[in-house]
Amino acid sequence: MLLPLDIGRQLLTPEILRRFIDSAVSGRIESTGRLVVVYFALVVAGLGTSVLMANISAKLAWSSTNDLRDQIMAGLLRQNASFFAKASPGELVDRIDNDTARLGSTMSGLLLDLAAQTLLAVGIIAALCRLDWRFGVLFLPFTAAMLVLLRRQAGRALPYIEAQRETEALILGAVDEWTTGAEDLRTAGGVDHVRSSLWELGRREYRTGRLAAATGARWPATVQALSVISTLLALALGVELNRAGTATVGTVFAALSYATLIRFPLTQIASRALEAQTAVVSLRRVRRLLVDRPAEGTARLAPNRSYELVFDRVTFGYDEGPAILRDVSFRLPAGQILGLVGRTGSGKSTIIKLAFRHLVPSAGRIHVGGHDLSLLNRASLRRSVAYIPQGITLFDGTLRDNLTLFATGYDDRALLTALREAGLGALLESLPDGLDTRLDAGWNRLSTGEGQMLNLARAFLTDPAIVLLDEPSSQIDPHAERALREALRRFARGRTAVIVSHRLETLEVADRILVLDDGQVAEYGARAALLADPGSAFARLIAAETAAP
Questions:
Q1: Cβ count within 10 A of residue 148
Q2: From CA 360, how far away is CA 373, in angstroms rounded?
Q3: Between 249-261 and 263-291, two packed helices, what is the crossing angle to 10 degrees?
Q4: The three-state (H, E, C) secondary structure of 245-268, written as one string
Q5: What's the rounded Cα separation, in Å, for the pair 25 and 20?
Q6: Are 430 and 438 in contact (CB under 8 A)?
Q7: How large is the greatest C-alpha to C-alpha distance in the chain, in angstroms?
Q8: Are 401 and 455 in contact (CB under 8 A)?
């Protein structure tokens, strides 16, 4: 609604000035006062519409950018672990922050502005034709030539802009990697390597940025040059028409005003066209995050205490890399505990992530409670299956926030019970504000064992049917391990559970044992039967650990 008003104001201003000049030259002073009032009103209206349009455009840019970021984050939180293995944190930050900001601010007013500037250019040609058809004949080819050149320029900068954005993402990813490993780099003497690598990335960004800028600058420069030529031609034509007595001084002035004015919509179209190319690059990068989402199943698990877990000839590998798991098959009955053992790199953690659908098998099927895992609704799966990783992630917030992961609907009694069941009763008593103690203010340093127990408390709180534990005792001392083992025993009772552990004492609670060797099942059976067989791989592992000093 505001844009047509603003276009009309711009088209009307030279006409008011034409009448003012002609009235002044002819001596009709009484009419000039009204024209001054009208001109002043147009100026005030122009200021008002400019402020309103800027305000609306800014609000639209912020709302669209925030909405886009929200959609991207919602999609990212549903991604499989394989997605994050391919995308660096720096690249994701660049897409979520920089690309969405560029896209939101550009697209919020881009299409409307392009339409408005095109309409203004058409209006100027019409106004010139109304002044004198010869002005219209002069400027119509000029405008057409500008649009043809614009069409030829459109898209030429895209490859260079995209290369520049990719280089910027590489820089962000590299800086994130270097700052995370800064201590190791200093210790190993890798500072010079980091500096030379950053210098090379900076040179690459400079080269791609220079090409993009040079390509985008050609069009505005062409418009400026041709507009100067057209203005001189309009001046020459106006002078000639005035000498011939077919155009007044005011008409010549108005023609020159329109000749100067037409440069602005054409230049604006040119600059917005470059912005559009930048937006297209950002759109492509953001679209990959919005479109590349894992398939969502529709099947739901019926309410139950535990479910059977079945791996049927499962093979997995990352992209074109070698297979990490090959033809893995086993059946874990409902309510039993499986212990996964094997050398580092044999695929134990991969089985856990596959069972939680963090990863998707390259071949084979996984069934939970009789349902194909790939066909299960993700929310239903998460309510029934708990995954406890090796490390603990603490968020900026209270103990309550870190236990519930900011979910609502839990009463304090349930939270306290979960913490005590996980073996954190003593810690809870020592906290100054109990559940409301902030973990970033004085109590931000949980021990590794306390962190693992907090992981377990999170699982206690959701009361899952299946629990998947990946090395729960890998980084804790023997005392903390005993407390954790007791908590695991209480938690796993009556549930289906899979436990990965390099400490075989942790697997005393297991009913069955699966031994992995180089991504394949080397041995699978009841724990008691395998221990009773001196020739079993598991019995040899127990004997070796017992004999170790």
A1: 10
A2: 9
A3: 20
A4: CCCCHHHHHHHHHHHHHCHHHHHH
A5: 9
A6: no
A7: 120
A8: no
Q: In a 10 Å sphere around its CB, with 0-12 CB exposed, 13-18 middle and 19+ buried, how is residue 102 labelled?
A: buried
The domains of the chain are located at: 2-157+217-291, 309-392+465-524
Q: Where are the alpha helices (DSSP H) in 347-475?
A: 348-355, 378-384, 399-404, 412-421, 425-430, 448-462
DSSP conformational letter for 311: E
- Cβ 59 vs Cβ 75: under 8 Å: no
Is residue 520 within 8 Å of residue 327, measured between CB atoms? yes
What are the tokens at 316? 């997995």
- Joined together, the tokens standing for residue 224 give 């400026």
Nearest-angstrom CA–CA distance, 257 and 46: 17
- For 534, the token pair is 């001196």
C-alpha Rg value of the chain to the nearest Å: 35
Rounded distance, CA 487 to CA 469, Å?
13
Tokens of 86: 């391919």
The CATH number of the domain covering residues in 309-392+465-524: 3.40.50.300
2-157+217-291, what's its fold?
Answer: ABC transporter transmembrane region fold (1.20.1560)
Q: What is the pLDDT along the chain (549 residues), one digit of tens a residue?
A: 787 888 888 888 888 888 888 888 777 766 677 778 888 888 888 888 888 887 887 787 778 778 888 888 877 777 766 677 666 676 777 777 777 777 776 666 676 777 787 888 888 888 888 888 888 887 787 777 766 766 666 566 667 777 877 788 778 778 877 887 787 777 777 788 888 888 888 888 888 888 877 776 666 677 677 777 777 888 888 888 888 888 888 888 888 888 888 777 777 776 676 667 667 777 777 776 666 666 666 778 777 667 899 999 999 987 777 888 999 999 999 889 999 988 888 888 899 999 988 888 989 999 998 888 888 888 888 888 888 887 777 787 888 888 888 888 888 888 888 888 877 888 888 887 888 888 764 445 677 777 778 888 888 888 888 889 887 766 666 666 677 777 777 777 778 989 888 777 778 888 899 999 888 999 999 988 988 888 888 888 877 766 655
Structural tokens at position 285: 């990068």
